[in-house]
Amino acid sequence: MIFKRTTGEDDSIVAMLASALRRDIAFGSLMPDQKLKIAQLRQRYGGSNHSMRETLRLLSAEGLVESTTQRGFRVTSATEEDLRDIIMVRCQIETAALELALQHGDVQWEGRVMAAHHGLRKAETAVAATPDDLTALQWDEACKAFTATLIEACGSPRLMDLQEKFFNQSRRFRLALLREGRLDFDRRKARQQALLDAVLERDVKTALAVLAMDIEAELRAEPPN
Amino acid sequence: MIFKRTTGEDDSIVAMLASALRRDIAFGSLMPDQKLKIAQLRQRYGGSNHSMRETLRLLSAEGLVESTTQRGFRVTSATEEDLRDIIMVRCQIETAALELALQHGDVQWEGRVMAAHHGLRKAETAVAATPDDLTALQWDEACKAFTATLIEACGSPRLMDLQEKFFNQSRRFRLALLREGRLDFDRRKARQQALLDAVLERDVKTALAVLAMDIEAELRAEPPN
DNA sequence: ATTTCACAAAATGTTGGACATTTTTTGCCC
DNA sequence: GGGCAAAAAATGTCCAACATTTTGTGAAAT
C-alpha cells in the first residue's frame, strides 16, 4: 500500500468485509440459504480466518446471516414469510420514528428531507430509464437516504439503528422487485410526493399512513409490468 | 473437564463468554463506560484472543458494548437519555408484539402466560422478602420470561428477537432500581394482574395500555422507598 | 511550573499455522 | 439400492507473532 487512505474511509478490515458481504447478499450474488464456507469466502473477499469469522458473527447479529453451532454460517433464508415479517417490523419502527421526527424536526431537517426526496426522484427516474447494476445501487442508496433522513430528527439513536438494520434486511427483496420489473414507478412517485407534502405540512396522520402504505407496497407484487 | 455436558447447553465458547459478559454488565460488575481490554477479559473469563473479540463484536451488535476503531471496546454508557430511549423502543416493540399475540394466541398460550405470571409473582415476593444476588437473578429471569411468553404468540421471530435484545439492554437499569429499593412491588403486582386479566379477556386496548404503563414505570423512579 | 515534544510501553487489529472435534462425503460391502 | 466405515473437509479453538495505533512517561524548553 503506497497511498494513504485516499478516501477517509479506511475502517477496519471487518467493516470492509461486512459491507462487501452485505452488498453481495443484497444483490443476490450470495443467495439465500447458501452455505458460507470460511475458506471459500476468504479466497473471494480476502481477510484472515479470524476476520472472516468476526464479520460473519457481525452479519449474523444483523440478521443477514444465520449461524448454527458446528455447522457454520449460511445466508439467511428469504421466504415470503420473512419478507412479511421484515416489512411489518419496518412499518412499526419507521412510523414510530417518523412520528417523533415530526415532533422534533426543525426547518433544516425539512430542507434535508427535500434534498433527499429530490435525490430519490432523480435516482428513480434514472433506474427506470436504464436499469443496470450501477443505477440500481444508486437507487437503493437513495431510498435508504430518504427514509434515514425522514427519521433522523426523531432523536432516538436506537430507532435509527433499527431502521438501518431492517432496511438492509429488506434490500435484496426490493432489488429483486426491481430486477423483475415489478415496481410501479408512477405510484411510487405519487406516494413519495404525498409523503413529502404531508411531512412539510406536519400532517402526522397522513404522513404515517402514506409511509406505512409505501413500505407495505413492497409486499404486494404491484403490476407484473 | 470430566463431566460431559450435564445440561444440554454446551454451546460454543463465544456463546458462554457472551452470556457471562451479559450477566456481569447487567449486574454492574462491568460498569458503564468501562474499558474492556482483551487481555484483562481473557484472564477473567478465559477464552482466546479470537473468541473474546468475536464475543465483543456480538455484544456490540446487541448494544451492550460499544466499539471504536483502533480504540477497542467499552461497556455502553448508561445515561438517563439512554434509558429513556431503550424504554421507548421497548414500548413500541412489545405493544406491537402483544397486539399480534392477542390476535393469534390460542388457549395453550393463555396457559403459558398464566404460568409465567405465577412464576413472576413468586419470584417477586421472594426478592421483595430477601433481596440478594440469587433472588435478583431469578426475579430478572422471571420478568423476562413473563414478557417473552406474553408475546411469543405474535408469530414474528424478529419482534421476539428485538424484545430480547432490548430487554437485555434495560436489565442493568432495572436491577439498579431493585438494588436501590426503588421498586413499588404493590403497584407492580397490581399492574401485572391487570395485564394478565386484560390478556385473558382479550381486551386489546386495556392490555396494551397497561403493558406500556408497566414498561414506562421503569423510567420514573417510583417511591424512593 | 506548565507546555511541548520525543520516546517507550501498552493495546489493538491482523495474520498464519496448528490441532481437536464434528460434519459431510466417499467408497465399499452386503 | 441401502447401510456402514473410512477418508476428506469444515468448524471452532488456541497460540504466537507482527505492524500500527494509542497511551503514558519523562526530559527539554519557555
Can you tell me about this structure?
2 copies of one chain form a homodimer. By secondary structure, the first copy, chain A, is mainly alpha-helical. The first copy, chain A, folds into 2 domains: 63 residues, Winged helix-like DNA-binding domain superfamily/Winged helix DNA-binding domain (Arc Repressor Mutant, subunit A); 137 residues, Up-down Bundle (Four Helix Bundle (Hemerythrin (Met), subunit A)). Chain A is globular, with a radius of gyration of 19 Å. Chain A starts with 12 loop residues before the first helix and ends in a 9-residue tail after the last helix. Chain A is built from 9 helices and 3 strands. In chain A, strands 1-3-2 form a 3-stranded antiparallel β-sheet. The relative contact order of chain A is 0.12. The N terminus of chain A is likely disordered. The longest helix of chain A has 25 residues. At the A-B interface, helix 3, helix 4 and helix 7 of A face helix 3, helix 4 and helix 7 of B.
Topology at a glance:
Two copies of one chain form a homodimer.
Chain A: H1 13-26, E1 35-36, H2 38-45, H3 49-62, E2 65-68, E3 72-75, H4 80-104, H5 107-129, H6 133-151, H7 157-179, H8 185-200, H9 204-216
Antiparallel strand pairs in A: 1-3, 2-3
Helix pairs in contact in A: 1-3, 4-7, 4-9, 5-6, 5-8, 6-7, 8-9
The first copy, chain A, binds a DNA duplex (30 and 30 nucleotides) through helix 3.
Classified by CATH, the class of the largest domain in chain A is Mainly Alpha
| Assembly type | homodimer
Query: Whole-number average pLDDT of chain A?
Result: 92
The strand order across the widest sheet of chain A is 1-3-2
User: What's the number of domains of chain A?
Assistant: 2
Q: What is the CATH homology-level superfamily of the largest domain in chain A?
A: GntR ligand-binding domain-like
Instruction: State the low-pLDDT regions of chain A, or none.
Output: 1-9
How many strands appear in the DSSP assignment of chain A? 3
In percent, how much strand structure appears in the residues of chain A?
under 5%
Helix content of chain A: 55-70%
Could you say what the CATH architecture of the largest domain in chain A is?
Up-down Bundle
SSE ordering of chain A: HEHHEEHHHHHH
What's the total helix number of chain A?
A: 9
Secondary structure category of chain A: mainly alpha
Radius of gyration of chain A: 19 Å
Specify which chain pair forms the largest interface: A-B, 27 and 28 residues
**End-to-end distance of chain A, in Å?**
48 Å
Summarize the biggest pleated sheet of chain A: 3 strands, antiparallel
CATH topology descriptor of the largest domain in chain A = Four Helix Bundle (Hemerythrin (Met), subunit A)
Categorize the overall geometry of chain A: globular
